[in-house]
Predict the 3D structure of the following.
Amino acid sequence: LAVQVSLWLPGWPRSVITIADGLGGMSTKTNPVQTAHYLRDNYQGGGVLVDDTLVGLIFESGLDLKEFVGTGNGDLWRSALKDPANNVEWVAFRPNEMGDRVTAALEGEPALTENFTQVYAAEDYVVYERNSDIAANANGSGDSEVD
């Protein structure tokens, strides 16, 4: 017992994992229930670009996991971070989350702001949907201009 106490004491209270998580780990993160329900109720396909750290949002939405584009999608993930309008219909991220790679790549960038409209914001999450004119052109059904 004395050895255990001596190991915990230097970093107390953060040396105890259950206390450390409660003070600043995943359990302190904002609960994405409302955001997930918005996505579930409004999503009509096309893929959702998210960082894998948004696992709560992903699972709470009830959408099929294949609808989410994350790091596990390899080349599609990298392509969607650079050019989301040609790869996904939706983008969801946490603007104040330093570790969110979608935030780092797209927040305030023209690739997002010129091609998507913010349709939801709450619980420290934002959801963008691709503009309909961009979607039509990406699918080849939009009007084309002749020079």
